[in-house]
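Structure (tokenized):
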């Protein structure tokens, strides 16, 4: 399987968040809600165009 640096970064950050929250899904969810409230600007501007996706 091909290594993807973006996927690896996402996984690394996910593991870090899980560790910080003691693998408690409720705590992870609450943390996500807090982050969402503090970042009200749009992070995605254009809709995903599936015909341009690279697999």
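Design, position by position:
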């Amino acid at each position: 399987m091909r290594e993807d640096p973006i996927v690896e970064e996402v996984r690394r950050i996910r593991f870090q968040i899980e560790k910080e929250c003691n693998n408690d899904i409720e705590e992870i969810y609450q943390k996500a809600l807090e982050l969402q409230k503090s970042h009200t600007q749009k992070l995605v501007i254009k809709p995903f165009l599936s015909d341009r996706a690279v697999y």
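Reviewer-requested clarification: The chain is about 55% helix and 0% strand. The chain has a mean pLDDT of 84.
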